[in-house]
Amino acid sequence: TMPLIGSLALLLALALAAYNLVVGSIAQRQLFTGSRGRFSPQQLARTARLAGLWGFVALSLAVFALLWGIFTNDFALAYVVHESNRTLPAAYKLAALWSGQEGSLLLWAWILSGFSFLVRFRPKTDARLTQLASTLLAAVEAFFLLLLNLVAMPFAAVVGRIPADGFGMNPLLQHPEMIIHPPMLYLGYVGFIVPFAFVLAALMLRTPAEKWIATTRRWSVVVWVFLTFGIILGMHWAYAVLGWGGYWGWDPVENASLMPWLTGTAFLHSIILQERRGILKKWNVWLIFSTFLLCIVGTTLTRSGVVSSVHAFGKSSLGSWFLGFLIFTLAVCTLT
What we know:
Shape: globular
């Protein structure tokens, strides 16, 4: 029953994200052109916002359903078979949610919907700017939910006979920092989508910097702390388990996590100059664009199989999806 509920919750979340994207875009177009349909743009924006809020609830239900399957040893689910077993300690059963390809993508989407929920729940900046940023966030949510519904399905059933026990978690992953290191990195990676969405929305609307710069800076500080903490935890884990002889081994995926940290750090410093002196405007725009794009590059490297790394999942078809998303996003950033 719970796998069915989880699958339906993912479908519902995708439908809500698509509604948010389409109806939010229609509302923005009506506001831009001054046209009016059967419903006012304010009414459309309100229903799009509600869809976004309920999308977080739907994804939370999907996360709960997968955790239920892991903790109850539901080996009818292929994900549970590959990432857990009966003797796995409870703490690592929780970590099994993000130890595999499908579960980690579900966590990614859930964190994104959580951040989006905070943006939509109580807007603190210009209403129209927040509405457009919410619509852009819905576009990213819809992309990840498409992957979860079509390509990397966490509730896929086992083909053939249901095994009596699972394979268990990779021994290298059974370390206390597995419980906190990946979520911290994801909070950093995913969190940078919010300032990206606000900056892109501000460019589209030609919104003055004073209406978005403070919000963007505050968001960036918080997610930068998450990303920094996640990288430090990963360094300690590598030192303790992998025997690299140091805290950094220049692993491809390690480097991929460092790059958005560098551009994010540069953005936090230079945005202060823009706020105080009104300089470095174009520089800051491309710094936050680059930070978001590099976060997606890091996510792609771990899931495409193009690099050999202890951090990477196996080869999959996700690489082409992420490559297409990257090219599309870069084109939007360039043309805006």
